[in-house]
Design goal:
Layout (H helix, E strand, L loop, with lengths): L7 E10 L5 E9 L1 H13 L2 H16 L2 E3 L4 E3 L8 E8 L4 E2 L6 E2 L5 H5 L19 E10 L9 E7 L2 E9 L4 E10 L19
Parallel strand pairs: 1-8
Antiparallel strand pairs: 1-2, 2-5, 3-5, 4-5, 6-7, 8-11, 9-10, 10-11
């Protein structure tokens, strides 16, 4: 049976880091289709203050202690076909230090892609896996480093069994690094079971 398209979620996350310290983060999320309807439903049932608090707690789970700098802003949430929201956070301690050497590390990920993936309870499948409803997700991270460090370009792509995924890391000028993650699912349950177990998976 053909299922309806749930729309898209597009996130642009701009993070500016201080050397060895914290970082400012501005996150803009745009919705279309049924994802936009779901966002409007949240606005109708919760206060802006409660949603701002929930978003701030989620961001702190990702990056550690954070300060929410402004109340969540929703751009034309009621009338636009593609409403958006904007968050502002300050990451209090953005960097980790490796134990074996004096190296600073900042960890980030395309969390929007991760949150919309369907994860099987058992990778060694003998039955079809339902992928959920059709969906397209894009997550861009624009990372402004405190110095123009060397970052090698990386491209990783996978497609098959009803899903498509890609991650691309690109070094721009003046310490800007762009990480692009995309994920889409056609929303069908695959009727042919995998005959071999999945032995390896790649963390996003």
């Amino acid at each position: 049976m053909q299922v309806s398209d749930t729309g898209t979620v597009e996130v642009v996350e701009r993070i500016t880091l201080d050397i060895g310290g914290g970082g400012d983060a501005v996150v803009t999320t745009r919705y279309t289709g049924r994802k936009a309807d779901a966002m409007r439903s949240d606005l109708a049932s919760q206060s802006i203050a409660d949603i701002t608090k929930t978003y701030g707690e989620y961001y702190a789970d990702l990056y550690g202690p954070c300060t929410t700098l402004a109340q969540l802003h929703f751009g034309d949430a009621s009338g636009s076909e593609c409403p958006l929201d904007e968050e502002e956070h300050y990451i209090q301690q953005a960097w980790d230090t490796l134990e074996d050497r004096n190296v600073l590390v900042f960890n980030t990920l395309g969390y929007t892609v991760r949150d919309h993936q369907v994860k099987p309870g058992n990778a060694a499948r003998t039955a079809p896996l339902r992928l959920g409803e059709p969906l397209r997700v894009r997550h861009r991270i624009e990372l402004k480093l405190p110095a123009d460090w060397s970052v090698p370009p990386i491209t990783f792509e996978r497609e098959g069994f009803g899903i498509s995924y890609s991650s691309v890391i690109t070094k721009k000028s003046d310490g800007l690094v762009v990480l692009d993650y995309t994920y889409s699912s056609d929303g069908y349950a695959w009727t042919t079971p995998m005959r071999r177990p999945i032995r390896r998976c790649r963390r996003l």
